[in-house]
């Protein structure tokens, strides 16, 4: 396989890669268009739960965005720990201690967000109790 890669010009390889990616995107869009329900006008409700026909002048719910920001922060943890895992043998015990401290700080942050209710996107527990639902 490595012999085959040496024979291809880098510009041709880039062109091939871009062409395959464009064909894949077009195929996915075509299949999605064919499989979409025709009775639903537009795209319907998307991830945020906000109806698409609502005017954008109204404020959106902040908890959705808070969860997205928290996800991005904790997603960066994976990238940093992956880099540590690659160099784990070279960093030795000092690297292991640093990674452990890093994980403990992030777990403390996650615990704080969880106890604060920042990860809740639905009604607060006190609001559900006042409406008669547990």
In a nutshell, what does this entry contain?
69% of the residues lie in helices and 0% in strands. With 134 residues, the protein is mainly alpha-helical.
| Biggest sheet statistics | none
Oligomer: single chain
Which segments are poorly predicted (pLDDT under 50) over 5 or more consecutive residues?
A: none
Mean pLDDT: 79
Instruction: Give me the secondary-structure category.
Output: mainly alpha
Q: Based on the coordinates given, report the CATH architecture of the domain at 53-130.
A: Up-down Bundle
Number of helices: 5
Categorize the overall geometry: flat
Task: List key phrases describing it.
134 residues; mainly alpha; Methane Monooxygenase Hydroxylase, Chain G, domain 1; 0% strand
Task: Tell me about this structure.
This protein is mainly alpha-helical and 134 residues long. It has a domain at 53-130: Methane Monooxygenase Hydroxylase, Chain G, domain 1, CATH 1.20.58.1610. The protein is built from five helices and no strands. It starts with a helix and ends with a helix.
List the helices and strands and how they pair.
Layout: H1 2-7, H2 10-35, H3 62-86, H4 88-116, H5 125-130
Helix pairs in contact: 3-4
């Amino acid at each position: 396989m490595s012999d085959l890669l040496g024979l291809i010009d880098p510009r041709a390889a880039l062109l091939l890669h871009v062409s395959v990616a464009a064909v894949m995107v077009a195929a996915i869009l075509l299949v999605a268009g064919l499989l979409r329900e025709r009775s639903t006008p537009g795209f319907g409700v998307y991830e945020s739960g906000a109806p698409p026909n609502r005017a954008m002048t109204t404020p959106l719910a902040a908890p959705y965005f808070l969860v997205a920001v928290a996800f991005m922060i904790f997603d960066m943890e994976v990238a940093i720990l992956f880099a540590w895992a690659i160099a784990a043998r070279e960093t030795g015990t000092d690297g292991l201690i640093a990674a452990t401290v890093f994980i403990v700080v992030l777990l403390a942050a996650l615990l704080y967000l969880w106890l604060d209710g920042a990860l809740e996107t639905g009604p607060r527990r006190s609001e559900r109790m006042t409406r008669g639902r547990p």
